[in-house]
């Protein structure tokens, strides 16, 4: 596998980074990087860490980093995850209030511990804490329930003062969304499966709309809705498929669609194959709605969407 | 009436579905089966996920019918928790 860390890769311009990911020779990982400056989204760092975790250190080849911002990768813990000596020396400053370095979380109990102990370190106001811990909990719990990821879930997050935004990456190397969804629903491609996974009421655990006692098929719809209402980016990449919720126009009123393809988005189904699922989300703290107002919007659209799903699901077949 | 205090079981952020399912199976379902009322006291719980509330009450609505909501009281819920409970109650009734 080959991965090149570019000069810039955030959710808005992440497509070239994903398209450059080389999937041949899965027993080795070759990492190269821009020589001047590296400025990348936590999703990118978490993806590289997840790739490295699946290999032994001797299978990972990382060129000597020259970019002036190389210390950032070191501070986020990337080289520790890859178990390689980067030769980069840094003085570690307190991470609290600025970032969550790479974490590997392997089960439900450890997730609860993480949410309880780590999220407060971001020093956010209650208004901002609520959506962020909500997103972290739901996305990571999804991995434990559906992904069958041997490495569990890899995450990291960074606060960007200039844009007052928290950027989060959550990655697994499990079976992928298509594998989970197509066991019970009609999906032939990764992108079709991503579309269904984002649709309210559809879960990989039952054909029944509305889910089981344990799964409602609502988690990803909620996350997408939070991003939609706050006019933030949200990317989900699994297999060869990638869906990106684009920032909505600030002047337009928000509509929450059951079908993610009706939201302002971009998508592709011929990306290099990612074993598992990679998710990136940005939360702009300037535009964060009060969480209860946001939930009220979701409530108004959700039941309607489930009813429509039911209607669609049980249509009579006339031949 | 049986009262279940959630905070000692869930912490301030009620997100662990395994705990929700355990509360439902251990405490709520047996009470409702006896046709008794139950209060779920969210005092001190700052927020909850839809997944948690779904695992807590969706099966009750599915198994006992919508009328079961006459026997369940949600106490000391802040606005966010109320919204999440309303979402689950609404969509479960839409789906049944």
Q: Could you give me the name of the CATH homologous superfamily of the domain at 95-313 in chain A?
A: Histidine kinase-like ATPase, C-terminal domain
- How much of the sequence lies in strands of chain B comes to 15-25%
What is the string of helix and strand elements of chain B? EHEHEEHEH
Mean pLDDT of chain B: 94
Give the total of domains of chain B: 1
Task: Outline the structure in words.
- The complex is a heterodimer of chains A (319) and B (96).
- Chain A has 319 residues and is an alpha/beta fold.
- Chain A has a domain of 219 residues: Heat Shock Protein 90, CATH 3.30.565.10.
- Chain A is 34% helix and 20% strand.
- In chain A, strands 6-7-8-12-9-10-11 form a seven-stranded antiparallel beta sheet, sandwiched between helices. Chain A has a three-stranded parallel beta sheet with strand order 1-3-5, covered by helices on one side.
- In chain A, helix 5 packs antiparallel against helix 6 and helix 6 packs antiparallel against helix 9.
- The radius of gyration of chain A is 19 Å and the shape is globular.
- Chain A starts with a strand and ends in a 6-residue tail after the last helix.
- Chain B is of the alpha/beta class and 96 residues long.
- Chain B has one domain.
- A three-stranded parallel beta sheet of chain B has the order 1-3-5.
- In chain B, helix 2 packs parallel to helix 3 and helix 3 packs across helix 4.
- Chain B is globular, with a radius of gyration of 12 Å.
- The chains are: A alpha/beta (319), B alpha/beta (96).
- At the A-B interface, helix 5, helix 6 and helix 10 of A face helix 2, helix 3 and helix 4 of B.
- Chain A: This is Histidine kinase/HSP90-like ATPase domain-containing protein.
- Chain A: It comes from Candidatus Daviesbacteria bacterium RIFCSPHIGHO2_02_FULL_39_12.
């Amino acid at each position: 596998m080959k991965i090149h860390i570019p000069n810039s890769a955030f959710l808005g311009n992440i497509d070239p980074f994903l398209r450059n990911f080389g999937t041949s020779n899965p027993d080795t990982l070759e990492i190269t990087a821009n020589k001047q400056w590296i400025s990348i989204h936590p999703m990118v760092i978490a993806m590289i860490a997840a790739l490295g975790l699946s290999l032994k250190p001797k299978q990972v080849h990382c060129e000597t980093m020259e970019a002036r911002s190389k210390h950032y990768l070191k501070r986020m813990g990337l080289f520790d995850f890859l178990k390689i000596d980067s030769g980069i020396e840094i003085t570690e400053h307190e991470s609290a209030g600025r970032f969550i370095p790479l974490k590997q979380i392997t089960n439900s109990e450890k997730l609860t511990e993480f949410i309880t102990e780590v999220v407060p370190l971001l020093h956010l106001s209650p208004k901002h804490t609520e959506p962020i811990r909500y997103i972290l909990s739901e996305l990571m719990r999804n991995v434990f329930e559906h992904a069958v990821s041997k490495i569990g879930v890899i995450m990291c997050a960074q606060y960007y003062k200039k844009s007052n935004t928290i950027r989060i990456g959550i990655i697994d190397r499990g079976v992928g969304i298509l594998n989970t969804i197509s066991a019970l629903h009609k999906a032939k491609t990764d992108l079709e499966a991503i579309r269904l996974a984002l649709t309210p009421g559809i879960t990989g655990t039952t054909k029944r709309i509305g889910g089981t006692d344990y799964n409602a098929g609502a988690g990803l719809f909620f996350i997408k809705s939070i991003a939609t209402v706050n006019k933030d980016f949200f990317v989900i990449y699994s297999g060869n498929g990638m869906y990106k919720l684009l920032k909505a126009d600030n002047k337009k009123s928000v509509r929450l669609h059951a079908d993610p393809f009706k939201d302002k988005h971009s998508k592709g189904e011929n990306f290099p194959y990612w074993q598992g699922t990679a998710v990136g989300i940005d939360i702009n703290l300037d535009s964060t709605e009060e969480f209860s107002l946001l939930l009220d919007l979701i409530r108004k659209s959700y039941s309607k969407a489930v009813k429509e799903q039911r209607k669609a699901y049980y249509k009579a077949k006339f031949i | 009436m049986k009262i279940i205090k959630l905070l000692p079981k869930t912490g301030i952020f009620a997100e662990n579905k395994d705990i929700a399912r355990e509360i439902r199976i251990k405490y709520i379902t047996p009470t409702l089966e006896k046709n008794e009322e139950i209060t779920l006291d969210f005092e001190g719980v700052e927020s909850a996920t839809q997944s948690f509330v779904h695992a807590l009450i969706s099966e009750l609505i599915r198994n006992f019918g919508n009328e079961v909501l006459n026997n369940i009281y949600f106490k000391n819920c802040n606005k966010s928790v109320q919204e999440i409970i309303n979402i689950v109650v609404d969509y479960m009734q839409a789906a049944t």
